[in-house]
Amino acid sequence: MSTRTLIRGGLVVTAADEVHADVLIEDGRVAALAAHGSDAAAGWTADRTIDATDRYVIPGGVDAHTHMELPFGGTFASDTFETGTRAAAWGGTTTIVDFAVQSVGHTLREGLDAWYAKADGVCAIDYAFHMILSDVNEHTLEEMDRLVQEGISSFKLFMAYPGVFYSDDGKILRAMQRSAENGGLIMMHAENGIAIDVLVEQALARGETDPRYHGEVRKALLEAEATHRAIQLARVAGAPLYVVHVSAEEAVAELAAARDKGLPVFGETCPQYLFLSADNLAEPGFEGAKYVCSTPLRPREHQAALWRGLRTNDLQVVSTDHCPFCFTGQKDLGRGDFSKIPNGLPGVENRMDLLHQAVVDGHISRRRWIEIACAAPARMFGLYPQKGTLAPGADADVVIYDPHATQVISAETHHMNVDYSAYEGRTVTGQVETVLSRGEPVIDRRTYVGRAGHGVFTPRSTCQYLN
C-alpha cells in the first residue's frame, strides 16, 4: 500500500536553503518539493495533509553522540533505548548514533552484539552505532575492518579514564593507522587522564570532595594538551580525527590551528558547554552533582570561543553526549567523593530547542542551526543524504517546528527517564509540533503516536565530510 503525505505552507529550512515550499512524501521518502502555490504543488494529492503555515519544516535532528544504558561507575545510564529514543523524538531528533562498548579482554563483535540486542525492536526512531575501542590489539584492529563493512564506520578512543577505557598513545596510533586504511573515523575523548588522576588524588587528600572540584581537577589545559597530542598522532597516521565534546577555549584553538593547516580535523561541542558553566557545578549542597560530566563544564568565559568556533566551522557538530543518571540513587553515589559521581547529563530532548534559542539570541543563523544539528552530523558519520536534509530520495524524517511558541524546560514535563533537568526553569522560544520518521508520525501536534520498534538500525558509509 502506497501512502502519500503532503506538508503544505511551511518555510522549509535546510543547511543550504530557506524556501516557502510544500513537501510531498511517498512510501517513507521525500518525493518532491515545490514552491507553495505553484502549479506543481497545486496538483498534488495525498492521504494525509499537514498544514505547516507559520511553521518551519526542517529535517529531523541527527544526534551523533548518545549513551543509552551505558554502564558507568557501578550503575547504568537511566534511559533505555526505548525511553531515550522516545524522548529524542519529542525533541525533534529522528536519528541517534549511540556507542557500543568493547570491554577489555573481549572482542568488538561481543560488544556490538550486546548493543544490537539492547536496541533491537524497542526504538521509536532510527539508530546507528559507533564502536568504543577499549582494548587495541592485533585481533581488534582486524575487527575494525569488518565493522566498517557492516556500517559501523567510526571508533571512539579515550585518553581519559585509566583502568577503564584509557588507551595509551601507541594504541591510539595503531588504531589511527588502521582507520587510515579502512576509511573509519577515529573519535577522541581528549583529556590527559593520567595527569587528571594525580590531581583527583591530591584534591581528595586535601578534603576537596564537593562536585565543583570535578571541574577544577579536569583542567582546560589538560583538554588542550590531549587535543594537541591527538592531532599530532592523527597527522603521523595520516588519518582524519573527530574530537568529541570540546568544552574549552584552548582546545578550540588547537582545532582551529590544525584546520588552518588544512588538516582533516573536526570538533563537536554540546549544549551543556554552550548554555551551562562551572557555576552550575558550584551550586550549593550536592546540587552540583547534577552537572558532573567529562569533559567538565567550564567557566562561562569559554562559551564565546565555542560559539565563535561554531560560526567559523572550526566546530562542525553539536551533539548531546546524552548520558543520564538520576540525582537520587545514582549521582549521590559520589556524596563525599566527587570522583565517584557518575559522569553524564541528560539532554537528547533539549538539543534542537536550545539551538533554536541560539538562533533567536543571534549566535547562529537558521541554516547554521540545521547544519550543526542535522546535516553536518549526517555527513560526518556517513548518513547523508538519507538523513540530515529534505530532498527527493531522502528519508522522510521531518519536523514541523513552531518558532514562536515558548516553553519552560522542566523535569516535570520532559520525557527522558531521569529525575532532573540540567536546564530546569529555562524559558526557550520554539517548540517541536509534529515529527515524522520515514514518513510515519511519531509526534502529532504534541501527542506521542509512535511505537517501540518503528526505529531501525541504519548502517553508515564512511565519513562524507572529507570531500
Helix and strand content put the structural class at: alpha/beta
Main pleated sheet: 8 strands, mixed
Helical residue percent? Answer: 25-40%
Tally of contiguous helical segments: 14
Mean pLDDT: 97
**Strand percent estimate:** 15-25%
List its traits.
single chain; 467 residues; alpha/beta; eight-stranded mixed β-sheet; eight-stranded parallel β-sheet; 14 helices; 23% strand; globular
Structure description:
- This protein has 467 residues and is of the alpha/beta class.
- The protein has helices at 39-42, 81-90, 108-119, 138-150, 169-182, 193-205, 212-217, 220-237, 249-260, 271-275, 278-281, 303-312, 351-360, 366-380, and strands spanning 4-13, 18-26, 29-35, 48-51, 56-59, 61-66, 71-72, 75-76, 93-101, 126-132, 154-158, 185-189, 241-243, 265-269, 317-318, 398-408, 427-437, 440-443.
- The strands form three sheets. Strands 1, 2, 3, 4, 5, 16, 17 and 18 form an eight-stranded mixed beta sheet that branches.
- Helix 4 (138-150) runs parallel beside helix 5, helix 5 packs across helix 8 and helix 8 runs parallel beside helix 9.
- The two termini are 39 Å apart.
